[in-house]
Amino acid sequence: MLETSMLHGQVMQTNIPTISENGHSWEKIILWCTNRSKKDGGLTAEELEAVDFMKECLELDPSKRISASQALQHPFLYSDEIRNNDDEMSD
Q: Per the CB 3.0–4.6 Å rule, which of 9, 43, 49, 84 could disulfide with 76?
């Protein structure tokens, strides 16, 4: 990112580390932000769904990234309650 900004004559300052395979995981970031650790029980089921959703939406490779219609069907957004309502409406 720094190289790209310099290419365009811009200055970039950030405290966010560059995305890499050796960077921090979403799980680790959430635990750190909420002052918890894996020893405390880790992430809840809802948090794990959110992490999966973020990973799929923010995939850098567009060919691997989730589509908008797939995102709307992801369990994080598309709950069992909505599925049940959809089933009732289609009957």
A: 49
